[in-house]
Each structure stands twice: as C-alpha cells, then as structure tokens.
Amino acid sequence: MTDMKKNTNYKIIILLQSRIATLGSLYLGWFGDPVANFQSGDLFNIYLGFSPCEMCWFARILMYPILLLIAISFLNNDKKVVDYVITLSGIGMVLEAYQYYIQMMTRANVITTTICGTDGISCSAADIIYGGFVTIPFLCLVAFIVIFITSWFWKKSNKRSD
Q: Distance of CA 111 to CAs 97, 115, 127, 134, Å?
C-alpha cells in the first residue's frame, strides 16, 4: 500500500470519527437522549435537548475544528495538518478524561463539589448513562482517543515516507 493511500485511510478514519462526534454533540444539544427519543417515537423534538456544560463547550471547541481541518486536508493534501489534529485531540483527551472522572466520582459520592458549573449547568451531571458507565464525556473521550491514535499512526507514516 502506498504512503498516499495510507494517509488517505488515516484521514478517512479521522473524518468519520470527528463527523460522528460533531453530529452526535449537535443531536444531543438539540434533541436530547437518542435512545429515549427512539423509544418514545419522538426523535426530533427540540424541547428535549441538553444544554452543554462549560467543559462540553471546550470539548466542542476542540472537536469541531478537527472535522474542518481534515476536510480541508483532502482538498490540498496537507501532511502538516496532522500536527494540529494530534494537538487538539490530545488536549481533548485530557479534558474529557477529567470530566469523566468528575462524573464517576460524583456518582460514587467520592467528591461532592467541582470547579465546573458556574453557569448553572454542572459538569458532573450525567444527562445520559448507558450500562452504568457510558456518558456523554465518555463518548467524547473515546472519539478523541480514536482520533489521537489514528493521527499518531498517520504522523509516524509521514516520517517514514519523508
């Protein structure tokens, strides 16, 4: 497989993951819990959406540009975009791991206060929870991890081809 084809495969994985994460965050913000909405038959009721907390806003600020950067990299075949993607996803991983930690420790009554939530929306609140551990920050953390690992392999592939 040529280096160009490998780079395209890495970009496709990052594009798909960032697109799913972006659309997922927009759906949750506008329409709320997709599972509950599907069960009630009310998939697109704008009155059911969740207001993002402060940390969720920062996660969006880190995730949305990744989608744009990768889409643009398809147009101009820029290899340097991987540095920006690694940086954004790395910061996003740390942020979302911290928020997930806050959520789980609050649920387990280990901690009671957090530094987040000054706007009235607590970062420790779990709007959705599937299987006892899958929350919105967990889903975002997984997205950032997938993007980071894929970007790391892409960067490694670029170094070998240079």
A: 16, 11, 18, 19
53 CB burial (10 A radius; 0-12, 13-18, 19+): buried
Q: How far does the chain reach from its first CA to its final CA, in angstroms? A: 16
Query: Exposed e or buried b for every residue in 100-139, given b needs 16+ CB within 10 A?
Result: bebbbebbeeeeeebebbeeebbbbbbbbeeeeeebbbbb
CA-to-CA distance for 105 and 93, rounded, in angstroms? 18
pLDDT at position 35 over 60: yes
DSSP code at position 133: T
**This prediction's pTM:** 0.89
Q: Which residues contact 32 (CB under 8 A, 6 or more apart)?
A: 45, 48, 49, 50, 127
Cβ-contact 69, 81 below 8 angstroms: yes
In this structure, what DSSP letter does residue 134 have? Answer: B
pLDDT in tens, 37-81: 999 998 898 888 998 888 889 999 999 999 999 999 988 888 889
- Coil, strand or helix: which one is 130? strand
Angle at which helices 136-161 and 81-107 cross, to 10°: 150
User: Under a CB-based contact definition with an 8 Å cutoff, are residues 59 and 95 in contact?
Assistant: yes
